Queue: 3 jobs
Job 1
Amino acid sequence: MRTDKTKTGFTLVELLTVVSVILLLAVVGLPAARQVLDSFESSGSIRYLVSAALANARAIAAREQAYAGLRFQQDLDGNQYMIFIVNDPASAPSAGDLIVDPTLTGTGLANGFRAVAGYKPMRLPTNVGVMDLLVRTDPCNVSDVGDTPIVDSDLDNTNSDNLDDDGRNIYLTDTTSFSIVFSPAGKLVIHKVRTRNRHGWTTDASTDDVFNTENNVDNHLALFYQDDYAERGLGQEPSRNNFVIYDKRALEAVDTDSRWTDYLQHLEVIYISPYTGQIINR
């Protein structure tokens, strides 16, 4: 007696039909997916991220009973991060002291700030950044705390005087490297800030993987140059109470000799309440 076998699997026509439907859905869905990504990198989303980080920084200042805040700075690849910092003016520990007590810290600077232990730097979305739109008055003096509004000529990459040894614009580095600081009472203050590794050393011996010397950062042993390199646009400066959010793609699309006139000056300035630390609209 003959029995019919059950037919399994798909025919070639059926497989081609399924693949075609999947491709069609993917093509239709791409714009929607792009909108989701764009919305994540929108000004509103960055405001939320910064606002949450500011609240955390304010809590750190109250907990540590020290001036503490939020630092913005780019790494070697141009990615901008938020870093929690705390004022640590204690004398720099010696290598011998660290052998006895490896937890010792101290920047050795009255206005020295280091990264807060236990808090990893947080990277901002790739195509969005923040600026304070100010640069130090004397870019050759790391101790000078004067500042001035940025102008078109500062961002002109055709001027070799504006570039460091690696071809990075020192004024762009300056205006994207700034801090927002709270007092131990939780009030927003203007405080002189100079970042340094947690050991306060200017030699390459520090193992701090956040702020460190030029050699250690170039060798990928740390993320950010400490404020000891005026020739790179990094030195002591006052903390800020406002900032702007910018689109990196839009900035790149503007001629470097007119970035302020054609783009940056039109951005909304975002202020921070001196009493609550929250972002406020004006």
Note: The first strand starts at residue 68 and ends at 74.
Job 2
Amino acid sequence: MFKTINELIIWLNQHDIDISMWEEGNAKSVIHLWDEIASGETTLLDDPPQRIVHVVQVVIRRERQVLLEAEQIMENGSRRFRNQPPSEKLKPEESYLEAAVRCLREELGVAGEAIHLLPESYSPRTELLDSYSYPGLLTEYTFHMVEADVHGLPEEPFWRENDAVLMGDPVKRHLWVWRDDRSFIGT
């Protein structure tokens, strides 16, 4: 769709999407959107202007609790509050199961042998929302939710450094907490 980042910026401007506040606070930059498009994690529709994203969410339970990402600290030092299970955008040609394993490895540092996915728990849902990462850009999220048994996770809240920050991901650290599963909207 776009050959350069400048073409993307022109497209955003033509569709009256104000990017002046992007890269402030919790918002990501145009460069991050460009990277998502280039990697195939995001596509854009022209009429109406809309971002399309497929996300896997992995629900990990422990008795009556679920593991949630409570907070992110961004490269610029800002904090982003989440209350979401481990989540990752699907790459092109990647199944939700492959993305779930990649998510747990990248987000939690879990080895493959510690992961047992429960495909029978799979449930998809689609939502149309104003993007938290790119304010003003309407986004259609397809969430692919799957439960997993994961061994070796800490019992207490824990921080996890984001190794992908070196590859352009603006999230520097993640705080993971166990919360009552009734506080999780996915249940």
Note: The mean pLDDT is 91.
Job 3
Amino acid sequence: MITFKLVITPILIAAATLAARRWGPTVGGWFAGLPLTSGPVSVFLAIEQGRPFAATAARSSILGLVGVAAFCVAYARAAQRFGPVACLGVGFVCYAAATLLSHAIGGGPWVVFAIVCGVLVASLVAMPRVQRADAEGAPPWWDLPLRIVAATSMVLAITTAAASLGPTWSGLLSPFPVFSSVLAAFAHHMSGAAAAARLQRGVVAGIFSFAAFFLVVALLVESRPLSATYLSAAAVALAVNTVSLVALWRAKPS
């Protein structure tokens, strides 16, 4: 598992960074919002900890998106006045508060999914309206390596701590905004508040597919073969993903 994290996290942070440089911070954020690490981790939980554990963790992973949405909105709004370090502080405080509150939400997977989708829609509405981000200059040589080291260190720290917390808190913490915090701070530093806000909007749009993925896992993992469960979840997530990407491009500011 550690080897997997050490390999996949650098690949994903590099892909999200290059996507942001090629197509802008909104698409970079959308890419960072996908369940590209939490999905494989869910498979390992089902294999190593059992299907009931994975089902409970999947439901909690959906709820964990409440904290991610709170982080994204808080960072985007704080970025209009403060620098990256202060914005990260504000974002993580809001993330912690929202995650603690979401722990108290009851109901089955469908109820949780509906609540979280409502929160995500409200979060998109609450995002600050910004103009197109300033063009990003040529990044220094250390930019991408530093992003990879920062993101990988955060993933290792979070997942190591979550492993001993049981299925509920493991699930709640699995969507921790590792990529969005690292990418937003760098975008903020390199291109300004507008780039950071657009990236966080992309993250929120991208995590609709995250919620859909774990809804399918929570519904199927205890009764269907693992291959069918996760292939179905991936197919649903890709469909939702396509819709969210089209919506982002249509809403792209001129």
Note: The chain has eleven helices and no strands.
